Amino acid sequence: MFVAGGRSAFTCLELVGDYSSSLVDITMTILGSRSCLVGILCSLSLFVASSRTSFAETGSLDHPNIVLILADDLGYGDIQCLNPERGKISTPHIDSLAQQGITFTDAHSTSSVCTPTRYSLLTGRYNWRTSLQRFVIYGYDPPMIEQDRMTLGSLLQTSGYKTAAIGKWHLGMTIPYTDERRVRGHNPPNVDWDARISDGPNERGFDYYFGISASLDMTPYIYIENDRFVGKGNVVKAFGFRKGPAEPDFEAVDVLPKIQDKTVEFISKERDNQPFFAFVSLTSPHTPIAPAKEWEGKSGLGRYGDFVMQTDSVVGEITRAIDEAGLKENTLIIFTADNGCSKSARIPDLQAKGHYPSAQYRGSKGDLWDGGHRIPLIARWPAQIAPATQSDQLICQSDCLATFADIVGKKLPESAGEDSVSFLPAFYDKPIESTRTGVIHHSIDGYFSYRHGKWKLLLARGSGGLTAPREHQVAEDSPIGQLYDMDADPGETNNLYESHPEVAKQLLDQLTSDIENGRSTAGDPVPNDVENIVLWKKPTKK
Question: Record's SUPFAM superfamilies (predicted)?
Fold first, then answer.
């Protein structure tokens, strides 16, 4: 039974199991009264609901295990339960998480592209406060997260958790070289494959790491375990258009199954030890779109649809490992994605077959329109979250840091989570108490957008990203910005920028304040990493 933003008495009763059945039988026998039975059932439902809220109110439960699964380039509309009318890809395992937990329908990544999103997700801070003002970094780039900055990993590590990051990192690390030549391009000849890698996940809050340094179409094509390469990149391969060093046995099609296996292995190993946190960063359905052979042709929509189905299967296997280990009740699983669907998925072809990866929203990966950054975010935690619930409250992935701190009973220091607000109250069908006015969006080309309530302001004439019209394609006499009523116009088709100048000014003033203060939450102003953050970008011809 689906209850939007609430709980059903019958849903709650299911959790009581055999005890509820026994109570029904005894009550009917002794009382013989349907009205009395209804009263007892209502009391029982209230008891179950109140037992769920106890953690939020008292913090009395043990720290839950936390598994955060991040898909790569997966559209909001690629999840069947989020797009039932225009979604044609079967995602039964992710749908099952939604039926067992809570679905956030207005959740966003801070950026519409991957590196900046990952920075914000792990640190609770907008990426454009750093030197990364647009685009992404590459596989040999230096670390983006400062050494002393709190991350999800370090927060939980210092709270008694065993922490692991498994999969795509894409936040930089210090790659060792045999000499001091500067790295240029994607095919450096002087990597020291035997030396230690520094400033990677192990030094950013994670006890264990297994994965790749960047996207699966970025070199080097070699696994990293903790702070060492697994083998040597002594051959050259290309997955996509980037050619570079590769370990001889490394193949793109094997990476997603490897991430699954390493995650299941970690869960199995830690099941009887301290609480654990696994940040599972999938490489799918990002390019290269490489479904395993057993998934080819399954979707009927081409390789992208097949790869999404395989991604869903990986989520199912990780969930099954948790459940079979007896950890279901007190494990929080969060499933989400880093940004919208990529154009590499051949979106027009998918739409021709009736599948809309962005559902009813405009745009896709890279864009300021919601198709670029409105993402699936589903949470299951049976001990605390009622099944089949929904929240339409506005949240952002940067909010994970404050939420996890709330869960483990820690107060964030002033130097951490400057843009993070806890969404834990939403787990209990309560309003999120936010000191932040709105949420800032950022595109691949560095354009800004601001969302507050139903209003969304874009400091761009077009998509701000990869979808036409791009900034250099917009007519000169077009408004310099865009303003949309997201309640009335979720598809962002009716630009109200010139008809509601007072709303546009109010949002622009708040956006400016959030940037200049170095934080969007309450607290003393702190410096950004860069002095000059340009609000209004000039379009560049491509």
Answer: Alkaline phosphatase-like
SS3 for 272-297, per residue? CCCCEEEEEECCCCCCCCCCCHHHCC
pLDDT in tens, 19-64: 333 333 333 333 344 333 334 333 433 333 434 443 444 343 469 9
348 cis-preceded (ω within 30 degrees of 0): no
* Maximum Cα interatomic distance, the chain, rounded to a whole number of Å: 86
Of 398, 399, 405, give the one whose Cα is nearest residue 127: 398
Pull the structure tokens for residue 147.
Answer: 């050494």
* Distance of alpha carbon 420 from alpha carbon 435, whole angstroms: 10
> Could you count the other beta carbons within 10 Å of the beta carbon of residue 277?
28
pLDDT in tens, 425-436: 999 999 999 999
Kindly report the number of other CB atoms within 10 A of residue 182's CB atom: 7
Domain residue limits, the chain: 9-58, 65-428
65-428, superfamily in CATH?
Answer: Alkaline Phosphatase, subunit A (3.40.720.10)
**DSSP tag of 177:** B
Please tell me the pTM assigned to this model: 0.89
The answer to whether residues 308 and 285 touch, using CB atoms and an 8 Å cutoff, is yes
Return d(Cα 374, Cα 76) in angstroms, integer.
Answer: 6
Task: Give tens-digit pLDDT for 233-283.
Answer: 999 999 988 999 999 999 999 999 999 999 999 999 988 889 999 999 999
Alpha-carbon gap, residue 152 to 397, rounded angstroms: 12
Q: Is 162 helix (H, G, I), strand (E, B) or coil?
A: strand
Whole-angstrom Cα distance, residue 490 to residue 83? Answer: 14
To which H or E segment does residue 458 belong?
A: strand 455-458
The type of residue at 145 is I
DSSP 286-350: SSS----GGGTTSSSS-HHHHHHHHHHHHHHHHHHHHHHTT-STTEEEEEEESSS--GGG-HHHH
Residue pair 286/297 in contact (Cβ under 8 Å)? The answer is no
CA proximity to 361, closest of 278, 262, 441: 441
Parallel, antiparallel, or unpaired: how do β-strands 276-281 and 162-168 relate?
Answer: parallel
> What long-range pairs does 224-233 form, CB within 8 A, spacing at least 24?
224/169, 224/197, 224/200, 226/202, 227/196, 227/197, 227/198, 227/200, 227/202, 228/196, 228/197, 229/193, 229/194, 229/197, 231/193, 232/193, 232/194, 233/191, 233/193
| Alpha-carbon gap, residue 15 to 3, rounded angstroms | 16
In angstroms, rounded to a whole number, what is the distance separating the alpha carbons of residues 317 and 471?
43
Q: How far apart are CA 53 and CA 48, in angstroms?
A: 9
CB-based contacts of 51: which residues, under 8 Å, 6+ apart?
Answer: none
